[in-house]
Amino acid sequence: MSLITVERIKLFSTRSPWWCMIIAAVLSIGLAALATGFATGPDEARVTPAMTQFGVGLGQMVIMVMAALAVTTEYRFGTIRTSFQAVPQRAALLLNKTVVVATLAAVVGLAASWGSWAVGNLLAPSADMAINTNAEWRLMFGQAFVYALSAIFAIAVGILIRQSAGAIAILILWPLLVESLLPLIPKIGDDLQKWTPFTNANQFLNGEQDMGLAGAEAAGASTALSPWWALAYFAAWGIGLLIIALAAASKRDA
User: Fold this and answer.
1) pTM
2) pLDDT digits over 189-206, tens only?
3) For helices 56-77 and 16-37, what crossing angle results, to 10°?
4) How many Å apart are CA 153 and CA 150, to the nearest integer?
5) Cα separation, 11 vs 3, whole angstroms
6) H-assigned helices in 124-183
7) How many domains, the chain?
8) Which of 33, 248, 24 minimizes the C-alpha distance to 150?
9) CA distance linking residue 153 with residue 249, whole number of Å
């Protein structure tokens, strides 16, 4: 039995991945319904595909929690020791776990993105919901990349912290609070924010988007990088952190 198969069985044998996927879908599609369902008259005609993605970012947070739990739960119950005894190459074991979780995250990201678009299309039938521009295609399919890389980021944090509460706190507070508060630092705050990982992930998804009812013609660049370079930068953060985590897991006691 391959390590990929083993990790897939381990992941789906617990309830947390199922609940996290359900919550991510409900948040993403439910908030898309709220964002588009209350648009009437002239406002309905101004609904855009970008507006339907209002809740997909929150779904991303839930998937990060799922990814972290996939690692920290094993440390909590001590099953990671059995896994390391069966597979002495710890880095290979954890890398296969990462592949399984990241692949699942990408699938959930696509389902959340297109599901939200479908709900918006249903609730705002008079709006132009066609996916026409490169930015819109990048937004719809790009959720898979961002979800997968976010899962890698979360697994790396889980390996390093090894405690569910601590890992989840970092994964939620960093993108939602820390990166948002950086501009409050005098002189250097704005520059620091431009180089944070999740700000660049947001730039990849939302850069050059028609935000419709948000009041702007297009989302302006919030980082120093173009959208695709912003994704590469976000990937470098996730992969770099994973390399550090795998090295640490290979050297310290389980």
Assistant:
1) 0.91
2) 888 899 999 999 999 998
3) 170
4) 5
5) 12
6) 134-161, 164-173, 179-181
7) 1
8) 24
9) 15
